[in-house]
């Protein structure tokens, strides 16, 4: 029964997500990390990673590695006397926003292109019999 299995899979997935959230809220050794991702940003990262990965397993994994590298890699090897760490964080946010913008714009441009082509074909079909 597909509906029954669907509900079971959702329940199991929800249980795993709840356990992961509980472990995240308890923290490692009951202490919060100072470099953890803020809870307000998790939704944005999840949507951006899924959008960039085109909702495929391999694409989402690669996009998650990219976003993880952007999030933690930009502030690690920088000399604070040369480059302000807060600027690196802002630069990371801008790069992530541009990635989401261009990936979303790609889909939008393809939609407009195909709609324009269909409109031209429809106009040609209407003009041909007369």
Keywords:
single chain; 130 residues; mainly alpha
Walk me through this protein's architecture.
- This protein has 130 residues and is mainly α.
- It has four helices and no strands.
- Helices cover 76% and strands 0% of the residues.
- The longest helix is centred in the C-terminal third of the chain and has 43 residues, at 85-127.
Binned, the helix content reads over 70%
Radius of gyration: 22 Å
**Which structural class best describes the helix and strand composition?**
mainly alpha
Q: How confident overall, as mean pLDDT? A: 83
Short summary:
With 130 residues, the protein is mostly helical.
Give a topology summary.
Layout: H1 2-26, H2 39-52, H3 57-73, H4 85-127
Helix pairs in contact: 2-3
